[in-house]
Design a protein that fits this description.
The chain is mainly α and about 140 residues long. The protein has one domain. Helices cover about 70% and strands about 0% of the residues. Helix 1 crosses helix 5, helix 3 packs antiparallel against helix 4 and helix 5 packs antiparallel against helix 6. It is globular and about 55 Å long. The relative contact order is 0.12.
């Protein structure tokens, strides 16, 4: 049995690194590349249907502009991941600062299974709408 909190401490440290590096690389990427260079999805171009990640970049951009429902439509994994990350980091930070009786969220494997289910359902729905009704998403 693992010592209580080791995994959460490691995930918290990784989360801080992700915030720092992700913020820097995200700024550079969205500032200099996304608005200037748009590449078609190789999977979509080659096979004629959406890949499991299609809409991810649009979802991130929509989320960064505060358009939560639009991000949810483009790719629901992005707001799901952002909410999980924000909740985990916030509760872990408050626990470390000894704010009230707040206990930090613990990691559970079902978070990953839920993410996989979201990816599969999103992929299936988008391709169903595209291949059946010709609705581009």
């Amino acid at each position: 049995m693992r010592e209580s909190g080791i995994l959460e401490r490691q995930l918290y440290r990784i989360g801080l690194i992700v915030l720092a590096l992700g913020g820097l690389f995200g700024f550079v990427y969205f500032k200099f590349f996304v608005t200037r260079y748009t590449y078609p999805c190789v999977f979509y171009s080659g096979f004629g249907f959406y890949c499991p990640g299609c809409g991810g970049t649009r979802a991130v951009l929509a989320l960064l502009h505060g358009r939560f429902l639009e991000a949810l439509w483009y790719h629901p994994l992005v707001p799901y991941s952002a909410a999980l990350f924000a909740g985990f980091m916030l509760t872990q930070t408050l626990e470390r600062l000894h704010v009230g009786n707040i206990k930090g969220w613990k990691f559970h494997n079902w978070y990953l299974w839920a993410a996989l289910a979201i990816i599969i359902c999103n992929w299936a729905l988008k391709n169903y709408l595209w291949l059946t009704f010709g609705i581009e998403v």
